[in-house]
Design a protein that fits this description.
Oligomer: single chain
Number of helices: 9
Order of helices and strands: HHHHHHHHH
Distance between the termini: 51 Å
Structural class: mainly alpha
Number of strands: 0
Length: 194
């Protein structure tokens, strides 16, 4: 793949991700992506066979980038619960940076597409399961360190945290405030992780 090929394809994916995160998959037309990226229509179909193919590429690119970020936030030498707090702080910062307009691309697409498209639903579910797994590893380390109850089911707790966090992201978008995200974290640490 030539660098121009990679650059044009990557540009389409990046612009598409931004538009889809703000408007949704169905409301984001190919022409809007082309206009925003200044790429001719023929080039789009050189890289992607359909809008669905493009959507899946956007999902994969987002997941790859976000999983690298999870590595940075959840997989270092700091105490496990401190890493979890860094994860929440980064999410609040991201939400504030986009003026509460985006939330989580994977969560947004899960809400929009899961009932309509099995291919998207399966891929989105796989990504969310991977995020749960990463949270569970961090929680298991906290359990082993004695930071949370010894009988904690790390996998179930990770699933609970991810579901609650996704809900907090949705509420932050609708309220245009990170307050629901902060409330979720505060209650999690005060009532659940003790």
């Amino acid at each position: 793949m030539t660098s121009k090929h990679a650059t044009t394809r990557d540009t389409l994916i990046q612009v598409g991700a931004e538009l889809i995160a703000e408007q949704g998959y169905h409301a984001t037309g190919i022409n809007a992506v082309l206009k925003a990226s200044a790429v001719p229509k023929g080039s789009f179909y050189h890289y992607f066979s359909s809008k669905e193919d493009f959507g899946l590429a956007v999902i994969e690119a987002f997941a790859d980038t976000y999983e690298q970020r999870l590595d940075e936030l959840l997989d270092d030498d700091r105490p496990p619960l401190e890493r979890l707090q860094r994860f929440f702080a980064a999410g609040r910062a991201d939400m504030a940076d986009c003026d509460h307009s985006r939330g989580c691309l994977i969560g947004n697409l899960g809400q929009e597409l899961s009932a309509r498209n099995a291919l998207f639903r399966e891929r989105l579910d796989g990504i969310l399961k991977e995020w749960e797994r990463r949270l569970a590893v961090c929680l298991e380390q906290a359990r082993s360190a004695g930071d949370i109850a010894p009988d904690t089911d790390s996998e179930a707790l990770a699933s609970f945290i991810l579901a609650g966090w996704q809900g907090a992201l949705l509420r932050a978008k609708t309220l245009k405030s990170v307050t629901p995200m902060q409330h979720f974290e505060d209650i999690l640490f005060a009532r659940v992780l003790r």
